[in-house]
Design brief:
111 residues; mainly beta; four-stranded antiparallel β-sheet; globular
């Protein structure tokens, strides 16, 4: 059974950086892109970034220029490098491969 798991979340000060990882077990991510979404209480999930197996990327307006999504060659891990973090980036971050969701990773940006 394919499962996704996020890691790398935590507490960081404004202006700092974090790198999230999304790792798949039981196979690869498959033919779909991998998306990073984020969600805060009371709000809908927001698209953060996506990447295809060929390396094509897309970013949400709120993070473009600050976040970079990348992948490993084996197509089993996708990374989200988050720089110049702001308090507004505080959320639970989820990865999704079109079929499965990870449990999420908490990112908190606070001084």
């Amino acid at each position: 059974q394919v499962r996704l798991a996020e890691s790398g979340g935590g507490l960081v000060q404004p202006g700092g950086s974090l790198r999230l990882s999304c790792t798949v077990s039981g196979g690869t991510f498959g033919a779909y892109p991998v998306w990073w979404y984020r969600q805060t209480p009371g709000r809908q999930r927001e698209l953060v970034a996506s990447i295809t197996r060929y390396g094509d990327t897309n970013y949400g307006d709120a993070v473009r220029g600050r976040f970079i999504i990348s992948r490993d060659i084996a197509w089993t891990t996708v990374y989200l490098q988050m720089d110049s973090l702001k308090p507004g980036d505080t959320a639970v971050y989820y990865c999704h491969n079109g079929m499965n969701w990870g449990p999420g990773a908490q990112v908190t940006v606070s001084s």
